[in-house]
Design goal:
Largest sheet: 7 strands, parallel
Shape: elongated
Number of domains: 2
CATH architecture of the largest domain: 3-Layer(aba) Sandwich
Strand content: 15-25%
Number of helices: 12
Helix content: 25-40%
Structural class: alpha/beta
CATH topology of the largest domain: Rossmann fold
Oligomer: single chain
Length: 320
């Protein structure tokens, strides 16, 4: 195939280097545009496909610069940085890496649960500063109830890891009719009232924005904990801060924020808050797997084969 006729795939955000090299061996040209927005802008007019993580926003402005675009791959689970309606209207197929981050985020969730249950973070900070406060401190996960808001791959993997701790697990998910792992389904209000820990694993939609607001926090057990490893805008941060100050909540663990990097300095500085910089999926293994999965999908698309992680099946007519 003459070089100009080979479809151009643009790698807009860094993915696993081995995956990029495998893509280069496929029936396409590859441009690494991760260095700067200018490099991306120069590549878009010819792009057949684009691979992104969370930094690059595949919005209406980007789509307008890419008249030949037929394929978008998100090297992660969430696709809220992709204009799905706009892509679908143009027949652009969008895929993700649905299982790449499952173990990484599940393990972070368990780590957060242990830190919160034991009250370890303040003790770690105090000990490193020269303190030596001993005695009874915190509790155990054994016998506690962990409620999952959203019960997809990550929440199910977390529940599996919590079983040896002796924790009870509940889930609220309007798209899940039954479970086979011992996790009991509840309405959202029931889950909030019964859980010692509420862990968010829901997708961000117009309906789920500020799903956890002042009213729902008031329905939680006094002295319970909130974890968010999904999307920041699921939580009303002003309501969360007020609940931490009042003692309604005993603590929170946040890997995601309404604005990233976060600007709510009072929340970040709060003694009851564990905060990490949206790194739930950022393990060596998870990022390698994400790169492998989106490159697999790109190669399938280039060969005209069925896709396995198509997010918008209603997009028709896209061909390499």
């Amino acid at each position: 195939m003459p070089e100009p006729d080979r479809p151009l795939v643009v790698v807009a955000d860094p993915i696993d280097a081995a995956a990029v090299e495998r893509l280069r061996s496929g029936p396409c040209r590859v441009v690494d545009a991760t260095a700067s927005p200018d490099a991306l802008d120069r590549a878009l007019p010819e792009a057949w496909g684009i691979i992104v993580r969370s930094r690059t926003k595949v919005n209406a402005a980007l789509l307008a610069k890419a008249p030949h675009l037929r394929f978008v791959a998100r090297a992660g689970v969430g696709v809220d940085n992709v204009d799905l309606p706009g892509a679908t209207a143009r027949g652009i197929r969008v895929v993700n890496a649905p299982s790449a981050a499952t173990v990484a985020v599940a393990e972070l969730t368990v780590a957060f649960l242990v830190l919160l249950a034991r009250g370890l973070y303040p003790r770690i900070v105090d000990t490193k500063a020269g303190g030596w406060k001993r005695g009874e401190n915190g509790g155990e996960l054994r016998g506690k109830t962990v409620g999952f808001v959203g019960y997809g791959r990550i929440a199910r993997e977390t529940a599996k890891r919590l079983a040896p701790f002796g924790a009870r697990t509940l889930a609220y998910d309007p798209y899940v009719a039954s479970t086979t792992d011992g996790t009991a389904l509840r309405t959202l209000d029931e889950l909030l009232a019964e859980s010692d820990f509420v862990s968010l694993h829901a997708a961000l939609t117009t309906e789920s924005r500020h799903l956890i607001d002042a009213g729902r926090i008031a329905r939680m057990r006094r002295g319970s904990f909130l974890l968010n490893v999904a999307r920041g805008p699921l939580v009303d941060e002003a309501a969360l801060l007020a609940a931490l100050d009042s003692g309604q909540l005993a603590g929170a663990a946040l890997d995601v924020f309404e604005v990233e990097p976060p600007t709510n300095t009072k929340l970040l500085a709060h003694s009851k808050v564990l905060a990490t910089p949206h790194l739930g999926a950022s393990t060596h293994e998870g990022q390698s797997l994400a790169g492998e999965q989106v490159v697999d999908e790109a190669l399938r698309a280039l060969r005209g084969e069925p896709l396995q992680a198509l997010v918008n099946p209603e997009a028709q007519g896209a061909r390499p």
